[in-house]
TrEMBL record:
Residue ranges annotated for the Phage tail collar domain, each copy included: 8-63
Short name of any one Pfam family annotated for the protein: Collar
TM region positions: none
Name used for this protein in its record: Microcystin-dependent protein
């Protein structure tokens, strides 16, 4: 395998960084021992820029290319965003209805795919074949859901991201 570029990031299936590499976990490194890497990263990922600088932190993060594509918002190098969990508010959901239709008089006491609920009129027959369905009062159905956040992640496979501490300094075009 050829020598990596300094600051090159690779995916590695081990649980440690090989010699000459570091984990992309946001750790701070001394500038004095990593001048070539600092000249490429600067303080984009942290550090004070005097004695330390930070490595990218890809723990629980999905990498995204910087810049702006057609119809996309601009993403700056080192920008982070997104949420691991979200709670949807009613104004964030697509417009939809939960209307319930009912028949005016019952004919059977057995629910089935081709019958609908009907008000009970003193007997066991509470379902009827749909002929003239009527909308029920809006307060008949109450809101559902607990307002709790849900997981917002794509299906994933955890791997190790590593960054080259040494290697070939990348030439500019």
């Amino acid at each position: 395998m050829s020598d990596p570029f300094v600051a090159e990031i690779r995916i590695f299936t081990g649980n440690f960084p090989p010699r000459g590499w570091a984990l992309c976990n946001g750790q701070l490194l001394p500038i004095s021992q990593n001048t070539a890497l600092f000249s490429l990263l600067g303080t984009t990922y942290g550090g004070d820029g005097k004695s330390t600088f930070g490595l990218p932190n890809l723990q629980a993060r999905f990498p995204m290319h910087q810049g702006q594509g057609p119809g996309l918002t601009d993403r700056n190098l080192g920008e982070i965003g997104g949420e691991a969990t979200v709670t949807l508010l009613s104004n964030e959901m697509p417009a939809h209805g939960h209307g319930l239709k009912a028949a005016l008089s019952p004919t059977t006491g057995t629910p089935a795919p081709d019958v609908m609920l009907s008000p009970v009129n003193g007997g066991a027959a509470i379902y009827k074949a749909p002929s003239n369905p009527q909308a029920m009062a809006p307060q008949t159905l109450s809101p559902a859901g607990g307002g709790q956040p849900h997981n917002n992640r794509h299906p994933y496979l955890a791997l190790t991201f590593i960054i080259a501490l040494q290697g070939v300094f990348p030439p500019r075009p």
